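Below is how a single chain appears once it has passed through the pipeline. First comes the sequence as given, then the structure the pipeline wrote out for it. We keep one example in the README because the format questions we get most often are answered faster by looking than by reading.
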Amino acid sequence: MKQFIRFLLLLLVMELGYCGFLVVQRLSRPLPVLPDAEFVDPLMMEDYRELSRQAETGSSLEWIKLGQALLGQGFYSYAENCFRQAADLDPSNLVAQASYAFCLERTGRMQASTLEYEKLVPLKTKRAVPFASRQHFLYDIGKNYLREENAEQAEAAFRKNKGFQPAEYQLAKLLVRSGRAEEALPIINSNLSKISNSLKFLLLQSQALEELGRNEEALQAAEKVERAFDIVPLNFNTQFLKPLSVRHGIEKELETYNHLIQQNDMDSLAKKLDEIFQLINDRPMPQHKSALISMVEVEFQRKNPERMLLLIDQLNKFGIENADLLQFRAGAHMLKGEMEQAVPFLQRVAQMSPTIEVHQTLANYYHQQKQTDKRDLHLAKMALLQTMIAFRNNQLPSAEETIQRSVELNPRDPQAWFYYAETKRFLGDLQSAETAYKRCLELNPNHGRAVRELSRLTTEKNTEQ
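Resulting structure:
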């Protein structure tokens, strides 16, 4: 009997010891700290609480999920704590370490962020992790030094990142700005040989050539900028954060709506938007206005003008009145067969943010009204917009065709004559270009670009003679 009692006592001591161990272990783990985001998005707050419960007893992965949820909404300090805990639990987790360094950067602690990124540079990743590579880490280090105005260290970081176009752009820009344009040009030209229509590198090339006194070449490079594209990313924050921002709360519901758009089922879209609007429930949230705007677009597709006008009135009460809403208001009146009421709104849109569609609609209306002068004016504006699109896409034969139509329909538009001159100049018809620049300046003597290009043509002509 005594032995049995001893056994029970031993068992009790062991249980108490184990329970004590669990309590100590539980108390030694940090608890997640959450922001008070009820006013931002109550649905988001529900997700935060659930993720927090999972992280309390979970592994590195659960802490990362909570950190990413916080990061996606810009709660950098709260996310930082999660990623630090995730890295403590699993020091080999690259996502946790890189995200921790990113949070330090976002909260202005550049030196601490740089130290964390430097730890990651030598690591070899076994799997693809977006924005978690040696190139990105070195680039982030360089950007941190730039924010600290430490050009020397930034340059050193960018030099280590050879072949990474964003870093090579930043290096070339530092060289140009520090009076070393001659050293910058080979880097610029090498990248332009790979991406000849890069807006960033063409603009930098123009600046470098001007710095070296090669003004004619600088002007030629500058001319290409208008027909170039911004295709070299210099900031990856949006690409990094956007997928994280739509995983929870109202943003998750809006992302579901965006996927439904592909099905082109307007009734389903309207139903989903009504659900979102009920969830928002008149709270002062940014999504309130964006949901209303989406509802206007859907009701237009459903040909429901009365609902459109009610929604637009609501948006106007929020202080939102832009060209898109004016065009939708015009569209609502057109659906109701009230073209006379639609025209003033379309005219305002044509002044604020002209589009080919708006000018075409107005041209059709004035054609029906037998007002040929006004019809031709809008047809000319439509042709000018088509020219500008073709010109900027290096489609010069198409631009030549449409600009010819524009100046014929409205010979008193200085902008049309300017693009006529530009198109002719790039096609090699310098005589026609000179005549068109002069015509542009007769109509608008203060057209600076026409003054400059006409002066260049005149100088070249005199030099040849």
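The CA atoms of residues 184 and 325 lie 47 Å apart.

See the next section for the split statistics.
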